[in-house]
Amino acid sequence: MPKWLCRSGWKRRANWDGPFRNLADGFCSPECVQPHDTRDLRSVNLIAARSILVAVAFLQAGTAQVGPCRELDYSTPAQYLQYLQEGRSRLRSECIEYAIAGLRNHPSVPAADVLVSYLDFRVAKPHPIPYGLDHLVWMEEFPAAHALYAIGLPAAGSLMRAVGSIESSELLVNNAETVLRTIYREDQAEPVLALRQSSKSAPNAATAARLFESAIRLSHRCLPDRRSACEAALK
User: Fold this and answer.
1) N or C, which end of the chain has less CB nearby within 10 Å?
2) 40 and 119: one domain?
């Protein structure tokens, strides 16, 4: 009598370690499988397949949870930007924070002007600051500051325009100056020089005065060993 028996069109299961049995009434023994049966996979493939299923289930469970702003779930950076452009008075605070965080994670120069307009937006319960943005640890309640820092030097023009604008609040100007100093942290005289040059080419006297005053304020915040270079940049 054969040690194992499989129905026509079936085959013996690979790596079968169990007992071999013959079943009556034409049924195949458990060590037999159809050629396309997934039970015929090698052990390593079984482990990989199960890992994929677990990962998919985990992701599905995570996306099923209600986020801080459900209406922006799965949005693109362009959609975050469009949302912030709709007007702050009509937007929910938690959704503003959510959109700014999305732009922080996908830095882009076109978002800089909009983000600058939110530099005076303050969150009540700041989230932990992402690694790499901790140069602004004292500004954790202002999420737009971190998003602008993530953009880096290309955001300097937007920051200086905000400083020169008569429509900018005092808080917004102060935060813009702080982000500028942080972006130019390797050379403290650079933001002073940039503001001074912008003041010389300003479209009107009011804007020029605001830019020059900002340059003076930043020069006063230079460290002692850079003070002379900062003062020279004002000329």
Assistant:
1) N
2) no
Sole residue written with tokens 């912008």: 198
Closest alpha carbon to 115 in 141, 139, 151, 165: 151
| Residue 112 structural domain | 71-233
Boundary residue ending a domain (46, 63, 80): 63
The alpha helices in the chain, defined as continuous H runs, are: 43-64, 77-84, 93-105, 112-116, 143-151, 156-164, 170-183, 189-200, 205-220, 227-233
Strand-pair partners of 12: 32
Whether the predicted model's global pTM rises above the 0.90 cut? no
Contacting residues for 132 by C-beta, under 8 A, at least 6 apart: none
pLDDT at 35: 52
Q: Based on the domain organization, do 109 and 216 belong to the same domain?
A: yes
The token pair at 177 is 């100056």
pLDDT tens digits for range 151-183 = 999 999 999 999 999 999 999 999 999 999 999
Residue keyed to tokens 């397949």: 49
CA dist., res. 147 & res. 167, Å (int): 21
Amino acid at 52: I
Tell me: do 229 and 204 sit in the same domain.
Answer: yes
Q: Is residue 209 assigned to a domain?
A: yes
| 20 & 108 share domain | no
Residue 33 DSSP label: E
Measured in residues, the chain has a length of 235
One domain, residues 108 and 182:
yes
Regarding whether 222 and 138 lie in a shared domain, the answer is yes
For the CA atoms of the chain, what is the radius of gyration? 31
